[in-house]
Design brief:
Elements lengths: L1 E3 L3 H13 L11 E3 L2 E2 L15 H19 L5 H21 L7 E2 L2 H4 L7 H17 L19 H11 L1 H11 L3 H20 L8 H24 L9
Parallel strand pairs: 1-2, 3-4
Helix pairs in contact: 2-3, 5-8, 5-9, 6-8, 6-9, 7-8, 8-9
């Protein structure tokens, strides 16, 4: 059961009553309390009339993201822009809820929620789209397939770091499940996206002259796209085709 932290005592009482009543599975019941979401000006409260309805929040987010996409990618067709805006906006709202621990109060701020360059859903989705675009532009013969292999490659530090982080994914997912803490996956995918960005800035991929190095880097990008996509999907975020 996931509710706001103010319900903690109530659920302790309910679970104890069930235990005393002989309910066999009482010991298996879990209440996961989450702190509240505040506005920058303070707590939301029905008495003060500052409650924000989800429908209004989602519509506002979609409108804001559509404006950002129009500025960043003006050539994107209007219908595709509308679809991507909804995917990115709703995912951004989801990410802000899972990007902190359940004991931390969330102060909702549009600038942070829709940040394309920081710890936010749009930044992670943009990294995924960038990986996809690299693979789309690469020659088919260079893409990893089946038992395709490449020769010995001298890895750069950023490539080694990226490989090490990719290998940690199963462990981080298991840890998040054990601790009932999606923030662990959120932190992981953000770190992966940052390291992928550093790799992309320092390493030529498609135009690398050495064939083995080029194929190795494309294989690395393929793995990043797969793992990043898996992580975002676990968090409930969509995987847009363009941004």
């Amino acid at each position: 059961m996931v509710t706001d932290v103010s319900q903690s005592l109530y659920f302790k009482q309910v679970f104890k009553v069930l235990e005393l009543s002989g309910f066999d599975h009482a010991k298996d019941l879990v209440h996961l309390p989450y702190e509240r979401v505040n506005l920058p000006e303070g707590k939301m409260a029905s008495r003060s009339g500052n409650i924000v309805a989800y429908e209004d929040l989602a519509a506002d987010a979609i409108e804001r993201v559509a404006g950002i996409i129009a500025e960043k990618n003006p050539s994107l067709p209007a219908d595709e822009r509308a679809r991507v805006a909804e995917e990115v906006a709703i995912s951004a709202l989801k990410f802000v809820m899972v990007s902190v621990g359940n004991t931390s109060v969330i102060t909702f701020d549009w600038e942070r929620v829709l940040d394309f360059d920081g710890y936010a859903g749009p930044y992670l989705q943009y990294a995924y789209v960038r990986a996809a675009r690299i693979l789309e532009k690469a020659p088919a013969a260079d893409l990893p397939a089946g038992d395709a292999a490449f020769g010995v490659v001298a890895m750069q530090p950023e490539e080694r770091t990226l490989l090490q982080t990719l290998a940690e994914f199963p462990k981080e997912v298991a840890r998040a499940a054990d601790q009932r803490a999606p923030v662990i996956v959120a932190n992981y995918v953000h770190r992966l996206a940052q390291e992928f960005s550093a790799f992309y800035q320092l390493s030529d991929v498609i135009h690398e002259a050495d064939v083995d190095t080029r194929r190795f880097r494309l294989a690395l990008v393929t793995c990043v796209k797969q793992v990043l996509g898996n992580g975002l999907s676990l968090l409930g975020l969509s995987l847009p085709e363009s941004m």
